[in-house]
């Protein structure tokens, strides 16, 4: 069995920066994280060992410490200011590429465009993006476009971790539904997401089974799993090496490994080591036949 790691996989610079800032803040004194720093339960567990407490971004009063941390997914200016106004010292770990998406949306609104965000309406990043623009609409599927009010000018951005192809398809559909309107699209899908998606496509050309490592509620990890299936591979998404199941594998199989942008390096390393162990213990074809009595 051959095991190949995707050329681009795992933790991105935005998550690394957020982790570093959180470590530094925790060293300075007691802090409360407003939500999940990134969508990975192993990272949550690690932060708990540093004494980082848990609060909620949209519930003022959910932090008993003076220091609070805004996650890498960002927040609306309204929420950020509200926490500052209640006397909290805010450490803001918003990824610079999420900030870029906020700036792009603000510029479009200032320019008179009706704001449209492509993404998951319940995701914390998207809630932050639209939080300062109550008129903004969030769309994820073509059917959602029917709910948009008619406007002369639409300004479109996307959640940073959406698959670019889906985003481009929706922008095209919006143009077709409103041929008389101007549709201005700013591509805010982040570079690490694009790299991981295209590296996965390469991996799927030579592998039959793909192991995707990352948090179950991590959007970009889920997108990698879905993409691997769309490319015709069998994909298994796991958070931890102990979830690997030997029955998924067989001798001679080409197995690819990738990981979401919030996955720790050591988790990916452990998964690869575990896979090597499984590969070394796969039954020899002869042994298998004799076990089956053939
Ligand atoms: S996935 Fe992209 S936007 Fe999110 S933290 Fe990483 S680099 Fe930033």
Can you describe this structure?
With 294 residues, the chain is α/β, with parallel strands linked by helices. The chain folds into three domains: 99 residues, 4-hydroxy-3-methylbut-2-enyl diphosphate reductase, catalytic domain (Cobalt-precorrin-4 Transmethylase, domain 1, 3-Layer(aba) Sandwich); 82 residues, 3-Layer(aba) Sandwich (Rossmann fold); 89 residues, 4-hydroxy-3-methylbut-2-enyl diphosphate reductase, catalytic domain (Cobalt-precorrin-4 Transmethylase, domain 1). The chain is built from ten helices and twelve strands. The strands form three sheets. Strands 1-12-10-11 form a four-stranded parallel β-sheet, sandwiched between helices. Strands 3-2-4-5 form a four-stranded parallel β-sheet, with helices on both faces. Helix 3 links the parallel strand 4 and strand 5. The longest helix has 16 residues. The chain is flat, with a radius of gyration of 22 Å. The relative contact order is 0.16. The mean pLDDT is 94. The site of iron/sulfur cluster has 14 residues, from helix 1, helix 4 and helix 7.
């Amino acid at each position: 069995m051959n095991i190949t790691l995707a050329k681009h996989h795992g933790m991105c610079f935005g998550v690394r920066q957020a982790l570093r800032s959180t470590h530094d803040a925790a060293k300075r004194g007691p802090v409360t994280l407003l939500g999940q720093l990134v969508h990975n339960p192993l990272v949550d567990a690690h932060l708990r060992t540093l004494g980082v407490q848990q609060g909620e971004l949209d519930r003022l009063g959910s932090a008993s410490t003076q220091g609070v941390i805004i996650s890498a997914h960002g927040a609306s200016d309204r929420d950020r200011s509200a926490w500052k106004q209640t006397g909290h010292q805010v450490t803001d770990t918003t990824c610079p590429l999420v900030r870029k998406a906020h700036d792009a949306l603000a510029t479009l609104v200032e320019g008179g465009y009706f704001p449209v965000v492509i993404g998951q309406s319940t995701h914390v990043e998207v809630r932050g993006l639209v939080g300062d623009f109550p008129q903004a609409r969030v769309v994820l599927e073509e059917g959602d476009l029917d709910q948009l009010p008619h406007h002369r000018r639409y300004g479109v951005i996307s959640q940073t971790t959406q698959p670019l192809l889906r985003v481009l398809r929706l922008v095209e559909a919006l143009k077709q539904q409103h041929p008389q309107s101007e549709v201005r699209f700013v591509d805010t899908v982040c570079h690490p997401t694009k790299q991981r998606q295209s590296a996965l496509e390469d991996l799927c050309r030579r592998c039959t089974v793909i192991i995707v490592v990352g948090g179950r509620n991590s959007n970009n990890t889920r997108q990698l799993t879905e993409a691997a299936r769309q490319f015709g591979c069998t994909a298994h998404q796991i958070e931890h090496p102990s979830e690997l199941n030997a029955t998924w594998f067989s001798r001679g199989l080409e197995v690819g490994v990738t990981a979401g942008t919030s996955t720790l390096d050591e988790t990916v390393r452990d998964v690869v080591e575990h896979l090597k162990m499984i590969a070394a213990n796969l039954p020899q074809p002869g042994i298998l036949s004799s076990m089956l009595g053939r």
